[in-house]
Each structure stands twice: as C-alpha cells, then as structure tokens.
Amino acid sequence: MNGKSVPQPGVPLERDRHAVMRAWLRKLPERTLLVFIAHRVEGQSYAEIAKDMRIGEWRVRWHMRRAIRHILKIGKPYREAFAALDPITQQVMELAWDGLLNDRIAQRLGLTTQEVENRMAAALVALHKAATL
Prior knowledge:
The chain is 74% helix and 0% strand. The chain has helices at 14-25, 30-41, 46-53, 57-84, 87-97, 102-109, 113-131. Helix 3 (46-53) packs across helix 4 (57-84), helix 4 (57-84) packs across helix 7 (113-131) and helix 5 (87-97) packs across helix 7. The chain is elongated, with a radius of gyration of 18 Å. It starts with 13 loop residues before the first helix and ends with a helix.
C-alpha cells in the first residue's frame, strides 16, 4: 500500500504498539529512562530505585514525572490520529492489539478478512505518520 509496510495477515500488532513506545522512550535522557524502566517494567519501588542509583527519592519522582510528561506530550499526535479513525477501524485495531487474528476479528465484527486487512493497513499508516512527527 503506497510502498508502506502492510501487516501480515494473522500477525498480532502488539509489537507495533510496543515499537512506538520504545521509539518514544529512546528520546528520554538516559537516567530518566533507567528510572522509568526500573519502576514501570521491573516493578521497583521509588525507595529501591533511589538506593540502587544512589539518588534521593524526590529525584526518582522527578525523573518519573519527566518521563510521563514526555510520553504524554509525544503521544498526543498518536492518540489524536487514533481518535480520528472511524469506530469500526478503532475496534479492528484494538482487537488486533489484543492478539486476535484477522479472521477472528472479521468474524466478530461482521467484516471480510480483506476489509479487516485494508482497515488495519490504512490505520497503521495513519498512526505511523502521527508517531513520527
């Protein structure tokens, strides 16, 4: 589709959403990224992070606020692009992100598999454009 990559039929799209998040997170300063990963991915408490990194808990909170503000700011165009999709395409994408295969999505929404794939491809192009602004 216009030289853009089109999702493979039946391949879950969760990794696409994770790829967008990884790209956003790579733009964080290193220490802020380390704090964010320690807390949100590894489940460490602020006290544990502060002890491991030899910084105060207030500094851990500061890094977390910085990371969340960054994600909210950079993710705004992505959220707006998703909100601009028609409701059926939003459902298609949500079901795909949940790991449902294209034929099951089609069956659930009363669409053909081709319609699901076309909606998914168009949505991915729109979301990719928004995420790379």
